[in-house]
Fold this sequence. Notes:
Blueprint: H1 5-14, H2 20-34, H3 41-65, H4 82-91, E1 94-99, H5 105-115, E2 123-128, H6 131-145, E3 153-157, E4 160-162, E5 169-173, H7 174-183, E6 190-195, H8 203-218, E7 223-228, H9 233-239, E8 245-248, E9 255-259, H10 273-287, E10 292-296, H11 300-313, E11 318-323, H12 329-333, E12 342-347, E13 360-365, E14 368-370, E15 373-375, E16 380-382, E17 385-387, H13 390-397, E18 408-412, H14 432-447, E19 452-453, H15 455-479, H16 483-493, H17 499-508, E20 509-514, E21 532-535, H18 536-553, E22 559-565, E23 575-580, E24 592-595, E25 600-603, E26 607-610, E27 638-639, H19 640-652, H20 665-678, H21 688-701, H22 709-721, E28 731-733, H23 741-750, H24 759-773, H25 780-791, E29 804-805, H26 810-821, E30 836-837, H27 854-861
Parallel strand pairs: 1-7, 1-8, 2-5, 2-6, 3-5, 6-7, 9-18, 10-12, 10-13, 11-12, 13-18, 20-24
Antiparallel strand pairs: 3-4, 9-19, 14-17, 15-16, 20-21, 22-23, 22-24, 25-26, 27-28, 29-30
Amino acid sequence: MSDLAAPIRRLLRKLPEARPQDRGRLRAALARIARLPAEERAAGISRVERLLAASIAGRRLRAAAGCPELRYPPELPITAFREEIVAAIRRHRVVIVCGETGSGKSTQLPKFCLEAGRGTEGLIGHTQPRRIAAQAVARRIAEELGEELGRTVGFKIRFHEQTSPETRIKVMTDGILLAEAAGDRSLSAYDTLIVDEAHERSLNIDFLLGYLRLLLKRRRDLKAVITSATLDAEAFAAAFAGAPVVRVAGRTFPVEVRYAPPEPGPGEEEPTPVEQAVAAVRRVASGGEPGDVLVFLPTEQDIREAAAALAAERLPRLRVLPLFARLSAEEQHRVFRPAPGRKVVLATNVAETSLTIPGIRFVVDTGLARIPRYLPRTRTTAMPVVPVSRGSAVQRAGRCARYPGEQGRVIVYPVPVKENGEPNYAPYGGSKLEVAVCDRSWQAFRERQGAILDFAAEQEVINQTHSEADTAMLQAMREGQGEIWQRITDALVRGDASARPQLIRQVDSRTVIVYEPPFGLSEESPYQFEGISLWHGTLRGKLKELQQLRDELGLDWAVRYPAAQGDEEKDDEIAYRWLDVERPDDIGLSLIFAVHPQLATYDAEHGLRLGVPSDGSYVSSSATWHRERPDYAGYRLESYTEHIVGMRRIFEGNPISRIPVADGRLRRRLAWVGRRFADQTGDWRVPAELLERAVRLSLALHDVGKLSADWQRFAVEYQKAIGEGEPPFRAAHTYYERDNPIHEAAQKKVRRYKPSTHASESASASARLLYEALEGRTCPGLYRAAFAAIARHHSPGLDEAKPYRLHPRAGETVAEALTAVGESDWSAWARWLRSGEEAPNVRRHLPEAQPEGDWARWFQYF
């Protein structure tokens, strides 16, 4: 046993004293050091000792700092439940808080967690569904603690973070927490998570709740608080192992609901939602009752039209203020300040949750919002204006009557009607369950026309309309049904790096088409064109450059996005109006964008390039859902060595390569990556030649599974069936022409001989060869990356292999292939080939749950 083994054991025993978020990284570093030769361990041990000492000191400093004095506003209903909630947090790992809108959940629960002793070992993470709410909640908590924002209380949203080493409460959007989970699957920086507004039922919220259930099983130190005003609390409590439910019911300020269907005059058209909202404000202003008004409208354009219409009304002492996500923080904050006269806040659904605007006594709800919606026919996502859900309507109602003496009134407009007379619940209605929920929701509001809704009455509406839907969602969450749940599980729990980019592209990408849309309304769908998926940040970063080039070329526009007009359910009635993208934040308004043809180029070598002047000859082609296979989709009879030589030519850029599109590009990219690794120091320095060796070995060994006795028997039987006779070598491809009836008949005749997989078997047979040739003892990340590249070159999710037995002459064939891709002495490595396995274990060779350091990013990139 080496003398250096004792220091490693000593450091491992001290790990529990480090900060939780540092323990996993330090443990992995010690594991790597333990695999090194004894003479190379000393430097690594010294470095880990320094990092561990700094982490322990930081943890002790945080514990000694304590937390500021906690004060609770006595007027908030939740304050009366402080002792009960604090005790529940101390005793239980999960607590469900079912509090009505305006009860103070969002601002007081993080302080309750501090009082319960949380926030010492890690952060108290507090999620909000929207950026405005995250900033407003963080600012309010900091004010109540008497501190500047960024000390004890901080926040993080997209493009903006205000935290410090002193921060104990971190308010963020749910999307930020999901992004952090992709990088740290244990969320080790947090000792408590508060999922606020769980009723929102967005994709992010559903993911977080499902992932939280899995995470609580693995982290015994983690605690969670789930809150909402409109959830079926008992069902959620059962889903989280019988978690206690605390009901905060104390609002003494009732809400009167007024159901107001449009009433057009004789010969008049039905008024638009904007016209109805303006009329409602006019009625409030002329009624003589004091109080400010909050109007919910679906889009920024509707807000502008409503503001212009109210200005034209010249109503006395009326101040109109907009509120939507793209406003600056200062412009958003204006709605919270007192105003002379009556304040009318025109808002999108960003004001729906976690925002208390002082003085609001009237809420005018058009019942509409711009909501992302998946279109199965085009397999794209649009953001149409649609009726809001029942939960959102209740939340909007709760925006008024937030202070003593206020009795709010909510005006609810009716659901639209289809041509056949049935209610149009889009985007809901995809199932009988959704239709039933919508029917019950609207019926419940009609039954309560003019009624006073206190907290108990709200809960009655919730239980009447939504319990069945909540139960169905929870059941799906328990069972992990569906492809998206599988990808989330792969990416976050099993650490499948291949799933993460796919998820990121799904939730955070934009489709770009090079196309000149027509002027005005057009029935030509933007989704009929071939698009290129770009990360939204790339498009934001390119916008200024595109606009400058537009001005230089004297063009009318640079980037546009489509706004759908008409009924999304009826393809023949949909029309699109194209709007200019003026600011980077406009990229958030749509998922598809058109770039002017004179501002982009495309070629096979460089792909799509934005901000490059062109003659406009390249435009996006029409999409075809069923593509013809390229000409080279057929195969010729090819020996294993011939196949590998062809792959090498593609990699090296040989002029006779059969695939000129890829010709040499891979090697040029590898050279760039190799230089980056060669420049590193310590554990991350990898000689450039070793990195290229990994790629060449992956080429030589990726189809070793085809050298099994079974696959070679298939090749022989197939070649005989088509009249060609037995091949004189070990084959990698058989002769096949599509549309050739003889070949098709032969495929059916001998398919029973053909193994269903070969990629994982290739990796399993090559495992030791890769380990020895790539110096797996000192570069385990490189070895695992090469192994995964072979195992998953056909399927990114494959992690199992079937029993196999290599052909007796497979070793000499692999020796030839190794010589073909590398040096002559590489042929000796064929002795490490494993000739067969009855129960191959592929998973233990794949990249670990958190790929080691920079290897994770490079492997995903490459």
